[in-house]
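Archive entry: two folds, one per protein. Generate the first.
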Amino acid sequence: MSALPPLPPAPAVARSAAGIRQAGSPVAGFFLDLLIAAATLLGLSLLCSVVWGVWRGVEVGREAARSGTGLSAAADMAQLLGQPGALAQMLMALISTGGAALLVYAWRRRATSAERGISAHALRRGSTWGWTLLVAALVFAGSSFIGWSAKQLGIEPVPTNLPLMEQALANFPLFLLLFAVFLAPAYEELLFRRVLFGRLWAAGRPALGIVLSSAAFALMHEVPGTSANGLPEILQLWLIYGGMGAAFAWLYRKTGTLWAAIAAHAINNAIALGALVVFGTG
């Protein structure tokens, strides 16, 4: 989770029998990274679901054996198995999304010793943390303004993860704090800023990197069809999440360390969690 150099080198050139040609397109590399991450995320999610289903099946079977009622019909069995609870869902998200981020980072965008040195130097600058606090404050203010403006138009979306957060807050508050404020910002910044944005930044196309990585960030947080939100609500959430992604990418490039983006993301999530505790809404 180290930074790229503030002035990344131009793309390397490779020689072939036909002469000199440019190395593979950074845009193609971006979408390949995204495809690998998405496939890994889905695969790990499926694996986690299977493991959870087997574990619940064993539990239900043991309970049926103790009670002497025997196994139920398929429909009743599905009802007995139920759905993963808040803790299980957070663990699945940690394994699937965090695993995808670590895999793509290690395989495709591992930091060099020089990049780690630049990041370590940036961490010692006071301006790094000044920019971090400023961006975190602006992200919060911007999200609040967008939400308020949309509410005046009758648009009030419900974030897809809000029911999970409410359930986790009621039953596993300490793990929710660890997950939302520390773990999720780390693996999301590793994937979306270090790997996806970083590839296009290193290729000298930071503006395109901000646009594409922020769009991917927004889409991951609000997937159409996974909630009751209509098109206006989805567009509002995309605007908020996309703006957050763009701000964190800008901060990463400005400071030269991914830790600044992680810290700003963590502050934003802590504020959202605090709002959920105090006001009952994210």
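Generate the second and append.
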Amino acid sequence: MGHGGGGAMSAELVEHVFAPAFGGPLLASLGDSAALTLGGARLAFSTDSFVVRPLFFPGGSIGDLAVNGTVNDLAMSGARPAYLSCAFILEEGVEMSVVARVAQALGEAARRAGVEVVTGDTKVVEAGHGDGIYLNTAGIGLIPAGVDIRAQRAAPGDVVIVSGDIGVHGVAVMSVREGLEFGVRIESDCAALGGLVEAMLAVTPDLHVLRDPTRGGLGAALNEIAVAAGVGVLVQERAVPVPDEVANACAVLGLDPMYVANEGKLVAFVPREHAEAVLAAMRAHPLGARATVIGECVADHPGMVVARTGLGGTRVVDLPIGEQLPRIC
């Protein structure tokens, strides 16, 4: 299970098995999506699979995740998402009403995100060889001229901004999966981030890095960027926005909010001269109302993420080995 968790085990699987098998310079960047040039147009192309359990959870469903996850991967390249494919892998015996409910949620999420599902596939596996419904989506979008967003562009001096509260999605899924009550209803932050990214790009096309911290959470995303760019990241631990209900749930479950998945948040590395204006634009957008600066990119400790604690000390924020919460997307 750890090999699918977005941490060190996932990275080793990609590095030692998939990358050597597939090869090619376009794959080497290992971003959320691939940036391609085709017929004079710059395209972003991404694919993702969704195996969340349960299929429906507070604030969303596997159908919402399938759209928003892929749309957000495209948006993290600065692309305007346009078209999706969708494949349903159904387990024999799943009720048709459940399939219809997922399909309806997926279609509504696509319309909200401004994309169209234009092709797809259906497969059925024998009872006991699946878990109701698995989904795969792929998407393409156009990258505007002058936009070059990728992890390798992170540079010392960049300001690190997160668009809002972290850890919400993972805790929402875990609460309903395990039947846990935390005194308040925790709903997933699942959302399409294309509009928020467009608002940021309207300030400046020179955004260095965007990443949606899904599997492995904010901690994994920051580590991936630090390694890709060969820079250090210094985070102010008290600045990281963790809502009380998430902090309390993580304390009960023995989890670190830095590694809990998100589905409607992004982290941005922005040149310092543009940071204030970009932050203001994010806060003016509904999906960035709680955006905050959490740290900076530094030349020290390249490839490492370090958090400065509230007591004035520091700790290393490692890349997680596997996944704290499996099957959350």
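Annotation attached to the second fold: The first helix runs from residue 8 to 22. The domain at 151-316 is CATH 3.90.650.10 (Phosphoribosyl-aminoimidazole Synthetase; Chain A, domain 2).
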